[in-house]
Amino acid sequence: MPTIQPKGEKVRQAVKYISERLKEDDQRPISSCIQEAAEHFNLSPKEEDFLRSFYEESSG
Question: Is the pTM of this model over 0.90?
Answer without folding.
Answer: no
